[in-house]
Amino acid sequence: MIRINLLGIPKKTTRGRRAPQVSVPGGEGSSTVVLGVIFLGALAVLIGIAQVWVGHEKDRLEKDLQKAQLENQRLADVKAKYEASKRKADMYERRVRVIDELKAAQSGPVNLLNMVADTVNTTDAVWLETMTSDGRTVTFTGMALSPNAVADLMANLRKTGAFKTVEIKETLQDASVKEVEAFKFELNCEIAPTFTGKIQKQS
Length: 203
Known about the structure:
Layout: H1 27-121, E1 126-133, E2 137-144, H2 147-159, E3 163-173, E4 183-191
Antiparallel strand pairs: 1-2, 2-4, 3-4
């Protein structure tokens, strides 16, 4: 059986010889242990710092996310208000357009009648007897003192811009009028698609 003397003091054997000594390493092992403890401590400190930084970064990102969500909600409210205002404006514009169209439809025949009256009044030696319209064409019948007067009336009607075409259907001498030479005429006029009731009056 081998005995280890930890005190390092030689011990005499029963036979007067010293027992073999086993030495235990001391200084180098202690340094390694201390370095290991320091390393683990530093690692723990670094891990703690990293956790604190991650926590702060998480809080910052959560706050930024909340701000972004609030801003998004604000912009959504602004967009909804804008779209509602735009719908109201579009509705108002449609109403105004409908009212304008109704006014134009009401005033169109009146303006057309006034224009024809002014044109006839500024054309010498013609008189109108009837004026009929189906919405697309207007038919005039009347009397003129000469074929040239009828031609002048047709030219003046074209100048107004209210008619796309002005055509004469017939003209014949009125035998019932004995005192002067008179001609009966009938004109067919197609209303221009661009006619809005604003007619150029003849001077």
